[in-house]
Structures are given as structure tokens and as C-alpha cells.
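Form P-L/3: holo structure prediction, ligand coenzyme A.
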Amino acid sequence: MTRASIELGDVTPHNIKQLKKLNTVVFPVSYNDKFYVDVLEAGELAKLAYYNDIVVGAVCCRIDTSENQRRLYIMTLGCLSPYRRLGIGTVMFQHILNYVEKDGNFDSIFLHVQVNNESAIEFYKKFGFEIVETKEHYYRRIEPADAHVLQKTLRKTDPEASQPTSVQCNGQTEKRDKKA
Ligand SMILES: CC(C)(COP(=O)(O)OP(=O)(O)OC[C@H]1O[C@@H](n2cnc3c(N)ncnc32)[C@H](O)[C@@H]1OP(=O)(O)O)[C@@H](O)C(=O)NCCC(=O)NCCS
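OUTPUT (holo model):
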């Protein structure tokens, strides 16, 4: 028996309807036309996941520059239920992690999840995410309406990182390498 293959592919006008169908099945929230227009422009931040050449998952992200930070926001990352626990979510997340690490200039990756979405919370905790906030009544038409904000803090690869910098430490100023 040959091993199953998991591959990622671009979202294009040709396959965008597959992405819409998949998101409709996987997520309780529906996404508007603007979401899909933006996804077509998202490049490496939107991918379909293929399991033995069949579309079974997708990830869609955008760059968020609110709150004086540059963060990657995961809008959707999901997989059809019969294909879960096969590593497909991991392949999609790893792709996003590679993207932010290569870029080197993101503060964090974050997303919202319904407070009862235990599988997603376990999945993201495995990759170093933490619940940093819980927003009441975040969702309008679904129950529970509350959302956790899950966040993974990243280390920026600062071009000046090799320059020594002064940091305040226990009331004293000391010299330290930013990378330390
Ligand atoms: C969350 C989700 C994307 C995970 O996808 P997946 O392909 O099943 O994930 P993986 O097979 O790569 O799992 C990686 C690890 O995450 C953890 N994990 C995933 N699902 C889990 C579950 N139901 N319970 C406990 N741990 C889980 C496990 O540690 C797993 O490793 P293991 O299978 O070796 O134990 C999937 O459950 C899903 O599509 N859910 C619906 C959509 C959603 O809620 N997305 C999150 C918000 S964007």
C-alpha cells in the first residue's frame, strides 16, 4: 500500500467554489463575498489542502496591523471531519509558520475560536498558542457566542539584533544582546 499524500495548492478563480463549499461545511460562520475576493489576492496566506488529490482542507489568513503590531490573523483553518487527525491541519499550520518565520517581522499569530471548540484549542496549544483573552458575545448567530483569542508570540528577526541594547532589569540598566 502506498502512503497517503498531503499537499497544499493555491486558491484560484478555478477552485474558489471548492473553498466556499469546504468552509460552509467546516465552519458554523459564513463568510461574505469580500472574504473570497481577498482570499484570491492572499498568495501564500490562502491554501487548499489535498489528501490524495482531493480537496479536504483549507487555510486563509491575513496580515493585521492594528494595535501597533504586525500580526498574522488566521481567519479559517479547517479540515473535513473524516480527514481529521491525519496531520492535514499540521501541514497547513506549518506552512503558515514557515511563512511568518521566513518573513521574520511578525509579532504574533492569533485567531478566534468558539469557547467550546476543544479540538481546535488542543490543536493550537500543541503549537505553543495560549488563550490570551475571552471575548463575550463575539459571534452573532451561533452558540456559544463567546470566543477565546488564541495567540502565539513570535520572535522578530531584527536586523539590528546583533547590536547590544540597553534593557531595564530590576531597576538597573544593563547591556544585553537583543537575541538573548
Ligand atoms: C482543528 C483542526 C483544524 C485540526 O486539524 P487536524 O487535521 O485534525 O489536525 P492534525 O491531525 O494535524 O492534529 C495535530 C495535533 O493536534 C491535536 N489535536 C487535533 N485534534 C484534536 C482533538 N480533537 N482532540 C485533541 N487533540 C487534537 C493533537 O495533538 C494532534 O496530534 P495527534 O493526532 O498526533 O495526537 C480540525 O479539528 C478542524 O478542522 N476543526 C474544525 C475547524 C476549526 O475549528 N478550526 C479552528 C479555528 S480556525
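COMMENT: The mean pLDDT is 90.
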